Prior knowledge:
The protein is α+β, with helices and mostly antiparallel strands. It folds into 2 domains: 10-48; 62-220, Glucose Permease (Domain IIA) (Distorted Sandwich), CATH 2.70.70. Helix content is 19%, strand content 36%. The strands form 3 sheets. Strands 9-5-6-7-11-3-2-13 form an 8-stranded antiparallel β-sheet, with no helix packed on it.
Amino acid sequence: MPQNRWPIAREGFPFLLPSAILTILVAGMGWTILTILGILITLFIAYFFRNPKRKIPSLRNIILSPADGKVIYVGESEEDRFLKEKVLKISIFMSPFDVHINRAPSSGKILQTSYHPGKFLVASRDKASLLNEQNAFIMETEDHFKILLVQIAGFVARRIVCYAKTGDLLKSGEIFGMIRFGSRVDLYLPLDIRPIVRVGQHIKGGESIIGYCHEEEKNSN
Length: 221
């Protein structure tokens, strides 16, 4: 899995470099207003594609947030496309001002990946989970339970990036992709995972703990 240790995600350079070069050229021509505008645009691009360092918790039996953003749903749901069972669903909405890099919620192996082209509805809407362009993968964790993660493109987002392929091993908190310019991530977990986040809470990918597995229930399986 490619690791980006730069403070800017590599997907941002095709946007950042042309903007910076154009701004320098405009500044050289003495066009003050366009130079200021170019600086502001370049700074926003750098801000959007920022890749901040994260302190990955080393605790056992935890589930980490796969994305930065606001929790918009926590509850039981019938997942009938991939897992085909009742699960705990946690949805995270990423605004254009959130970090858009996605991280693994747990350590494990990618069992299956699936890309589905679709619409670009506002990502916070319920229908976005089914109708929008999306990329999904099923992971079997080191504790031998399955997690379904779905990256969903939003109204502004037009590109889902996912490095993870079937058979890949991910470490908890490891970067596996991103979604450009506003989007959403849905996470489907076993019902014995206890959520510790609430709707409206803002969380950080790879750093915020969103749930944990009951030790006694896991040992009984």
